[in-house]
Input
Amino acid sequence: MEPIIKIQNIVKSFGRDELKIDVLKGISLTINKGDFVALMGKSGAGKSTLFYQMSLLDRQTSGEVFIFDQPTDVLTEEDRVSFRLQHLGYIFQDYALVPELSAEENVMLPLMMLGYEEPEAQMIARRTLDKFGLEGKYTNRPNQLSGGQQQRVSIARAVAKGPEVLFADEPTANLDGASSDEVIDVLRALNSEGQTILMVTHEQDYAKYCNRVFWMEDGLITKE
Ligand SMILES: Nc1ncnc2c1ncn2[C@@H]1O[C@H](COP(=O)(O)OP(=O)(O)O)[C@@H](O)[C@H]1O
Ligand SMILES: [Mg+2]
Output
């Protein structure tokens, strides 16, 4: 097994003095290449906060995050941004698409930021949208797509550049059952191609597709 993210004794606190709260209370775990991980637990347990630390969207109060065996606390803010752009994909429950841009333009955005020429970015974007059943929707803006389609565009945007790890924070929380199943099918297909995926979910039905399930309670992993 090839470790891809290793975290050691991660603590994240907000506020100071008597207002200080420890949202993460010392979490250690290792994610291996090809894992499909479910992170479960009640609302407020700290799941999103844990994802933010593991994906370098935020900086832990103490403890260490290693990605590809490299310590990340030595990276500057600028290095972290470019590292995320190159190596990590992230999807949110509200899709976070740019409303003024078409589906294909949304997917092209990170590719252009990585320096791809426009025709190549467009070709990759369309190929990725096709793969997720969105042929014919290239020029639709987000408000001209269903929730499930929007989430598949956001997955296309996250994976078009071939990230080593995909984070999905409650990707089906806003979707009906049928659209949720479509989104989970896309994630399962990606994982079967080798994509490492970490997903927060409340659905036991979806966790059963994962090879590892972590349970989180009050800032700690209480069970794997
Ligand atoms: N920026 C912040 N400042 C203060 N408290 C925060 C902040 N972000 C999250 N929290 C608190 O941390 C706890 C865990 O939040 P979160 O990670 O979003 O939980 P989950 O994703 O499991 O629902 C909550 O009590 C929340 O209020
Ligand atoms: Mg959350």
